[in-house]
Amino acid sequence: MFRISSAVRQRCFRTLTDGKIRNDSSALERTVLKSPHPIPGSALCCISTREYYSVDQAKRDLNAAMQEAQNIGKGPLPVLVVGGASMLPFVTVPFMCLMGGSCDASWAFSQVAYSASILSFLGGIRYAVTLGLRGGSTPDTIDYRVLAPAIGPVVASWLSLLFPTPLALLTVAGSLVGMAYVDVLHSPYPDWYKGLRFVLTSVAVVSLMLTLFFHLVLGDRKRDYRSRKVSKEDH
Predict the structure, then answer these.
(1) Total structural domains in the chain?
(2) Gap between the Cα atoms of 89 and 123, Å rounded
(3) Residues 48 and 76 in one domain
(4) DSSP string, 29-54
(5) CA neighbor of 217 nearest in space, from 110, 89, 94
(6) What is the pLDDT of residues 17-64, one digit of tens each?
(7) In terms of domains, do 16 and 28 share one?
(8) What is the 3-state secondary structure of 161-195?
């Protein structure tokens, strides 16, 4: 048997019935996760249930994420240093495209591949935290919906490696944004980690969009040169 306090039940009921988007879903999730009793996945449906997602809510979520960024200084220095260093492969590619006047296809693919590895890494973190907080030793505490935020990035990473460069860049960028949304606004992570995730994701997504821009505008000079060379040989 499982037991949820009356306060949690009331907050869950309000979340489901008021027809509005609640800002306390993360707090509710933390409250439920800290319960000493195992809770089946079906009882956790109220954590992420929302009637709709409005523009006003998107603005509030963005403001909340930006506020979390102010807590970065509270995090361990080694984590902050490693996190900052992990951005180098992201920012290097658009810088090379800008300096070289073209966007080599191999550069863009390397950025997509690195983004895919980062997404898989973030999915692994989410998977481990989910199992740990929800009592992984008890089968009825885990369901597919709970695992979706952890497995989804892995699938998106694999698909991005199969897509053409523009679509691949959009896929990994969108997946990073989705993971940041879940991790920053709907996860029981420390505030400093949420702020770090918001900042690092912003840098990564901007870098990916710059690479996409350079890929579409500047093109691949080496590829164009090879095409012209083959065309001349045919004539």
Answers:
(1) 2
(2) 19
(3) no
(4) HHHHHT-SS---GGGGGGGT--S---
(5) 94
(6) 344 434 444 444 444 444 444 443 333 333 343 444 566 776 777 777
(7) yes
(8) CCCCHHHHHHHHHHHHHHHHHHHHHCCCCCHHHHH
pTM of the entire structure? Answer: 0.68
Higher-confidence position of 172 and 227: 172
Helices (H), 101-220: 105-133, 144-160, 165-185, 191-217
Final residue of a structural domain among 52, 68, 95: 52
State whether 59 and 46 are in the same domain. no
For 119, residues 6+ apart whose C-beta sits below 8 A from its C-beta are 153, 154, 156, 157, 172, 175, 176, 179
Count the alpha carbons within 13 Å of 46 in the hemisphere toward its beta carbon. 24
The residues, ordered by sequence, that sit 6+ positions from 133 with a Cβ below 8 Å of its Cβ are: 33, 188
Tokens 């885990």 sit at which residue?
142
Do 166 and 230 share a domain, yes or no?
A: yes
- Local structure of residue 23 (DSSP, 8 states): S
Q: Which residues contact 130 (CB under 8 A, 6 or more apart)?
A: 136, 142, 146, 147, 149, 150
Residues 80 and 10 in one domain: no
Q: Is the dihedral of CA 183, 189, 195, 197 positive or negative?
A: negative
Q: What six digits make up the tokens of 122?
A: 């973030």
Question: Collapsing DSSP states into helix, strand and coil, what is residue 56?
Answer: helix
d(CA 201, CA 216): 22
Same domain? 47 vs 59:
no
Do 123 and 207 lie in a common domain?
A: yes
Looking at the fold, whether 199 and 88 belong to one and the same domain comes out as yes
Residues spanned by the domain of 217:
55-234
